[in-house]
Specification:
With 218 residues, the chain is α+β, with helices and mostly antiparallel strands. 20% of the residues lie in helices and 28% in strands. It is built from 4 helices and 7 strands; from the N terminus they run ααβββββββαα. The strands form 2 sheets. A 4-stranded antiparallel sheet has the order 3-4-5-6, with no helix packed on it.
Length: 218
């Protein structure tokens, strides 16, 4: 029985390649296209969620007037951004939703100083590119600026931390104005010398009058 040589094997492979090429091209054309752009609006079910009830210390700026600054890090591209948010508000940045229940900082008369915020973080998950995101809660609790190791947002892509809580306490404005008013005046400004009072010139003494005897002797 004659065996097929190398040239015969190549000729037999050509029809097989021609038959499989259309199938490969069809498979490539069925690949999903680019993912749809991410929505920037907060979903209604998360936007309507109320912040958990937390006790209010009742000192300083009312809770609803405070403003917290949170940092958000995307570990994939090492990009960070600041999120300014008030208690009871919800902010979305791409695939991350942040809710703030409250923020606090210690009064100036207490040590050590600390700034904290009660934060809830949700991250979007998609089953396939372009699918509607399913929001999953990844963190709910207090975050502290000077003690970040107490609570950490454990997520492989995103990280959230506290940067500031804008609020004031009674007496801070008074103390600030008093310190500025009691500050010493800058040196180098000479005080004006007192103007000397004018001294009256002495009046000339009157000439002595001639005695009558001397006049008669002349």
């Amino acid at each position: 029985m004659a065996q097929a040589g190398p040239r015969t094997g190549k000729l037999l492979a050509l029809p097989l390649l021609a038959a499989t090429l259309p199938l490969a091209l069809a498979a490539c054309s069925e690949r999903p296209g680019p993912a749809a752009p991410e929505e920037t609006e907060v979903p209604q079910d998360l936007a309507r969620m109320e912040a958990p009830p937390l006790p209010d210390a009742g000192v300083g700026t009312p809770r609803e007037q405070r403003v917290a600054t949170l940092g958000l890090l995307n570990k994939r591209n090492n990009l960070t951004q600041d999120i300014e948010i008030k208690p009871g508000e919800t902010r979305r940045a791409g695939d991350v939703i942040v809710q703030l229940a409250t923020c606090e900082r210690t009064p100036p008369w207490e040590n050590p100083p600390e700034t904290g915020a009660f934060v809830q973080v949700y991250v979007a998950q998609r089953s396939s590119p372009g699918a509607q995101p399913q929001w999953r809660g990844v963190f709910s609790g207090w975050l502290f600026k000077n003690s970040p190791s107490l609570n950490v947002v454990e997520h492989p892509i995103y990280d959230v931390w506290v940067k500031d809580c804008a609020m004031s306490f009674p007496g801070e404005e008074t103390a600030l104005s008093a310190s500025s008013s009691s500050a010493p005046k800058p040196s180098g400004t000479a005080s004006p010398a007192p103007t000397p009072s004018p001294t009256a010139s002495p009046s000339p003494s009157p000439a002595p009058a001639a005695s009558p005897a001397a006049v008669e002797g002349d």
